[in-house]
Specification:
Layout lengths: L1 H8 L4 E4 L13 E2 L1 H9 L3 H4 L5 E3 L1 E6 L2 E7 L10 E3 L2 H12 L5 E4 L3 E8 L2 E9 L2 E6 L3 E3 L6 H6 L3 E3 L4 E9 L8 E6 L2 E7 L3 E9 L3 H7 L1 H11 L17 E3 L4 E3 L3 E2 L2 E3 L5 E2 L7 H20 L6 H4 L1 H30 L9 H8 L5 H8 L16
Parallel strand pairs: 1-7, 4-14, 11-20
Antiparallel strand pairs: 2-6, 3-6, 4-5, 8-9, 9-10, 12-18, 13-16, 13-17, 14-15, 15-16, 18-21, 19-20
Helix pairs in contact: 1-4, 1-8, 8-10
Length: 391
Amino acid sequence: MMLGYLLGRAGIDVVVLEKHADFFRDFRGDTVHPSTLQMMDELGLIDDFLKLPHQRLQTMDGLFGGTKVRIADLRRLHTKYPFIAFMPQWDFLNFLREAGQRLSSLKVMMNTEAVDLIRRGETIGGVRAKTPDGIVDIEADLTVACDGRHSLVRERAGLAVEEIGAPMDVLWFRVGRKADETENLFARIDPGKMMVTFDRGDYWQCAYVIAKGQYDAVKARGLPALLDDVVRMAPVLRSGIGDVRSFDDVKLLTVAINRLKRWTRPGLLCIGDASHAMSPVGGVGVNLAVQDAVATANLLADKLQRGCPAEDELDAVRRRREFPVKMTQAMQVVVQNNIISGALRGGNRPLKVPLVVRLISALPWLQGIPARLLALGVRPEHVQSKTAPTP
């Protein structure tokens, strides 16, 4: 949606396909970081965007084996929007779609699922899509795969995925919240257990971290055992834990970190999770995808006025974005291997706060460093693509 809006704004005829009838998908990334808020400001959309219901996070505190630490303080950032906005992703997508309705060159097709690629020899010439009225061919000078970590377009194009790996999966669920229940804790880590909670206004959004491949073992222990662990780690959830009535209310998110070595074929470009799946560490996936979209529009919008750029010109997106992706994934792997894996292994010894976390918590001026990495990322993008003149 972001790339569609940017290209439509630049006067490029663009079609965005969404296989569902609406954007109301559960359990998507709902964190809008300052880097994305800055982009919305650069597009002149921020005032209306921030009128949508959202919660704001400026400090990130955690419990390591009962010891409270401060992991990041976004108030130390010299940026116009020093907070993370928690907003349902469907609200973000609907906002972009409504903003795009003012653009005559942007068309959004709902209930339309890409099922194959159209080929013109070695060149990708569009997609074959399933609609409520049957199969249609949608021809295009450039096809962009934005269809996630299980990208069908990427698969059909034969692009190989390099798996980096993750030692964990996540159980995702929501628990009711009373108006007088407040808590600033973000992460809780005990021997053998880890959980993250987000205050979403009228409910708590919860991520219970488990070792990779252990979901069946968790289910075998039973739901009461899981919920007992949850309440022991986060007593604030006790009053609303009854909202989780069965494992149908618990969604398994299989965590993966991977990336493509090659993001392109002639006439085709992959961006976002289709080119690099991120760990949930830091909640940066959506924001990395948005930055990919901005970089794509910056690099290709003018060239698309003359048809599809050559593959080397399309590859400029990878050359621009690969370094931030690799650096972000490397930092996620460090956190996974040095904090999360150690916590999930458990054992009888008390859990010690890692030295680097103790330093960050003890020296407030250091809290701006993880805040900057979380909020702005590595080499953030800015909107440079032009707006087409009004006829």
